[in-house]
Amino acid sequence: MLVGLGSDIIDIGRVEKTIKKFGTRFIRRIFTNEEIKRSENQKNRIASYAKRFAAKEACSKALGTGFSKGVFWKDIKIANSSFGEPLLRLQGGAAKRLKEILPKGSKPIIKLSLSDDQSTAYAVVIISSHANIRTDNV
Prior knowledge:
By secondary structure, this protein is α+β, with helices and mostly antiparallel strands. It has helices spanning 12-22, 24-30, 33-40, 45-62, 92-101, and strands at 2-11, 76-80, 86-90, 106-116, 120-131. The chain is built from five helices and five strands; from the N terminus they run βααααββαββ. The longest helix has 18 residues, at 45-62. The protein is globular.
């Protein structure tokens, strides 16, 4: 069952200007230490930050709150699987909100897609639920 859908698109140049203007203050306010480490090790670090920023925005929209009602930037973490697939990890207010919007007795399935070109970063987040199916009687 579809629970939430969010998308975001951002101009990579805007992220670059913000980082130049506010430096580590901006980076540390928005991103976790793991996200910073991963982005700083990328060939195009600004595009990496932009994709992660768009992913956080898209997730906040999928949760139906934006960055309000107790959902903060660092509550939404972007990681990668061992195969490189982008993953979302929710904690704090974002995890609480996820529990509120899920149908009772279900588990979340969160999918994240990221893309970028030379000037734009884009993210889509789909939150769906999967009913807990008892298998002990099968």
